[in-house]
Amino acid sequence: MSQLSNILIDGIVYGMVLFIISVGLSVTMGLMRFINLAHGAFAMTGGFVAAILVREQGISFGASIAIAIISTMILAAVLEALVFRFIYKKSELQQVLFTLGFTFACIATANLLAGAYIQQLPLPEWMNGSVALGDRTLPRQRVAVVVAGFAVTVLLWLLVTRTRFGIWLRASVDNAAMSSSLGINIRLVQSATFAVGAGLAALGGIMGAELMPLEPYYPLKYLVLMLVVVAVGGMGSISGTLAAALLLGVVDTASKYLASEYGNFFFYAAMIVLLALRPHGILRRA
Fold first, then answer.
1. What pTM was computed for the model?
2. Does residue 22 contact residue 241 with C-beta atoms inside 8 Å?
3. Cβ partners under 8 Å of residue 3, min gap 6
4. What is the pLDDT of residue 125?
């Protein structure tokens, strides 16, 4: 029972990290119909900025997170306006090649500016120590990850389903020409959605720095994990992405506890089985 609780707790924490990083990509791919393989670069950017601000500038952890997310969103909005907007109507292959090339450019830039080192992100005093959960003690940092994951789920669901912006977004995806004729600013919706996705990636890069170390090859190293979570959860499905991230996180954690010699075999085996049974996503109708 002790080992089972360890697997469940650690798996949920890992799954929440996967969810926070991947949900922005799910929104971009599912709601904007844009294959953005450079999504991990924004997660790396947010993590790098927060680490440098805390470690070298002495700025508080909370303020550093806010600055890192906002700066990443601004950078994403600028890049979307100057570069990415011209790729939306290109073929899927062209989108893949361009965003992959952009990822390599980001890796080279990170190497040049910060060096080929893991960026340490010091935790504040309130995130050090442990919280007792029955017979198990859990680091406060991991509790914060779980809380952040659920907060992102609720806020993003409210944004997409309960706000005027969410209505504009869904209308723009379904029929851009009709939406534009009704007065919806399509460009504003696209830019804001892209920036929100980048901001979520930045938050994931920061909160998951302990489990997914921040280094220049971060965007490529974890790209497949993000794509797997989005594919299994269903593109554009927030609840599906959460369910897929938690399920795959628990499966991967269990395999590390019980059969570590097999590496990531069970993670990808679970992906194959889930996609075979639910090709449109585990919580989406065919």
1. 0.90
2. yes
3. 257
4. 82
